[in-house]
Each structure stands twice: as C-alpha cells, then as structure tokens.
TrEMBL record:
Record Pfam families: Dit_like, LysM
Lineage top rank: taxon: Bacteria
Organism: Ligilactobacillus equi DSM 15833 = JCM 10991
Residues annotated as domain LysM: 144-188
InterPro entries: Dit-like_N, LysM, LysM_dom_sf
Protein name (database record): LysM domain-containing protein
Amino acid sequence: MAKLTDGKKTVEIFALSEEESIENKVSQYPVQSGNPITDHTQRESFTETFSGWIKGKDHNEINDKWSQLMNWQYAGASLTWHGAIIHGNLMLTNITKTYEDGGFKNALKVDLELREVKTVSASYAAVKHVGPVNPPKPKANPAVYVTVVPGNTYWGWWRKYGTPIQTLRNWNHWPDRFIPVGARARVK
C-alpha cells in the first residue's frame, strides 16, 4: 500500500507499478559535417509514474479520494509519495482513471504522473526610506538689488556679482552710459 500526501491529507493507493524516470538535456551543435559536439548537459526534473487502485468501502469514498487528487493537481500542491519509491516535492502533472471491465464497486484504477519540483525561497527586505519624502524644491535665487551710486557700471556689477552684462541690461533697461543715480538696480 502506497500513500500520497500533502502533509495534511493522505490518499492510499494499492500500487501495481512504480516507475522513476530521470532525463538529462544534452546540447549538440554541428562543428564539421556530420560531427556534432556536446558542450553541456542539464538535468531535468524526476518524473514518477504510478499505476494502481484506489480502494474504498463504496463508490462515494472512492470519488472523494479522486476529488482530492484533482484538487491537489489544480492547486499545484507539493506532495510526497511513500511506496517502493519514496520521494517528496512532487507535483501531479497527469491523473487518469480507468474503468476496466465496467469498473468495480469498491475500487478504481488510476494512473498518476508526478514531477519533481524545485522550489526557490526568496527573502524580502523592506526598504527603509532615509531621505526626505518629497525631493526638495530648488531654491529660487532671490534677486539682489542695489541703489545706484555715481560710478556704478554694468561692467562693475558683472565683476562684483558675476551676472553677465547682457542679463544686467535686460533686467534694468538703461543705456550703458546713463544709469540713473539713486535708482534701484537688479544685479543678481
């Protein structure tokens, strides 16, 4: 008697045959005419194939066990097989029921195909926000104004404040040779 379980529920199967198949993928590429070269192999998942009988006291109990197999297959449950072969981390890929000789009142012939599943565990680390919630708004350069005194020129303000002469002209709108004394002039 073999058992298929997800750790919570178990279905017992009277196993008639148990088969384990392991396949490798082998890459081959032609190098010369008719002479392939192999550069690597990759192991595929194990495939387990089982044939047997689900037994029960009546047809309702057998249908409940069959329904459990379908639920596991639909949910992609990780299962363990305990029979002549013992293997965990299996997933049902194919289930078949057969009514031979018209079926029996207390048994159902089933064929199961299970494939080994490699699960990956990933960790999650929460990101801690260490900066400001919103990026800082660029500070507006406050305009700098001066009161014009005799001797002030655009060239002098350019040397003192670093503002290009054409920008000073655009802001203040005075001719180069007539900057009014006592006026308010923008210099930065």
